[in-house]
Write a structure and sequence with these properties.
The chain is built from five helices and seven strands, in the order αβααββββαββα. By secondary structure, it is of the alpha/beta class.
C-alpha cells in the first residue's frame, strides 16, 4: 500500500498555541479579513436588490445572496477564532542560515528515517522544518517543507542526530530517527519559501 503523505504530514488540530510565521503573515491575515468584509457588503447590496424584485418564495437571486452572505460570515468567524486563539511570532528566515545544529530546530534541514511500527516499512525524508503553512518541495534537492506545528515536526523538534523516538502519528505508531541536521542554503530557501498565502481554515459548526 502506498504511503499517504497527506495523513502523515497534515497540520495539527487547532488549539491555543504559539505559531511561528514569516514576516508579513499578520498583514496577510488582516488583508484577508478586510477582503471578506468588502465581499459581504457587496452581497448585502445584492440581497437588497433581489428583495425588491417581488415574491421571496420564488426569488432565487435573494436566496443565493442570502446563502453567500452566510458562507462569508462563516469564513469571517473561523478566521476571527483562528487569530483569537493563537499567538503569532514572526521569524526571519535569514536567521536559519547560521543556526547551531546540535538539536533539531525551526529552520533546519534534517534527514529523517521513519519506520512504521506495524508494517516495519522504512521511509527516508529530507525536510526543512519551517514556519506555519509552508508546503513547497524543492525540485532540485528534493527537500520538502514541514510546518513546525505538524504532528511529525512536533515529535522531531529538540532531537539530536542518532536519536530514535517512538511516537504516535495520524498514520499510526512509528519510530523516528534523525540522521542529519544542517542549515539550509540561501538558494534552497529561495526555491522553497513562496509568497505568503492566507490560511486554509476549517469552518466550525455552531
Amino acid at each position: 500500500m502506498p504511503l499517504h503523505r497527506k495523513n502523515i504530514f497534515r497540520s495539527a488540530e487547532p488549539a491555543p498555541t504559539t505559531i511561528y510565521v514569516r514576516p508579513g503573515y499578520n498583514r496577510v491575515l488582516a488583508e484577508q479579513f478586510e477582503a471578506l468584509k468588502v465581499k459581504r457588503a457587496a452581497l448585502v447590496l445584492d440581497k437588497i436588490e433581489a428583495h425588491s424584485q417581488g415574491d421571496l418564495r420564488e426569488n432565487f437571486g435573494f436566496k443565493a445572496a442570502k446563502d453567500a452572505i452566510r458562507a462569508v460570515d462563516r469564513k469571517m468567524t473561523a478566521l476571527d477564532r483562528f487569530v483569537a486563539r493563537n499567538t503569532f511570532i514572526e521569524v526571519d528566515p535569514a536567521t536559519w542560515l547560521t543556526k547551531p545544529t546540535d538539536t533539531l530546530q525551526l529552520g533546519h534541514v534534517a534527514t529523517i528515517e521513519k519506520q512504521d511500527v506495524g508494517t516495519k516499512r522504512l521511509h527516508r525524508f529530507t525536510f526543512l522544518i519551517t514556519t506555519h503553512g509552508e508546503t513547497a518541495t524543492d525540485p532540485e534537492s528534493g527537500i520538502e517543507c514541514l510546518p513546525h506545528n505538524s504532528p511529525l515536526a512536533s515529535a522531531l523538534l529538540g532531537l539530536v542526530v542518532g536519536t530514535q523516538a517512538q511516537v504516535r502519528l495520524p498514520a499510526g505508531e512509528a519510530l523516528l530517527t534523525v540522521r542529519s541536521i544542517r542549515n539550509p542554503t540561501q538558494a534552497e530557501l529561495d526555491r522553497l519559501l513562496t509568497a505568503i498565502q492566507p490560511p486554509e481554515i476549517e469552518e466550525e459548526g455552531e
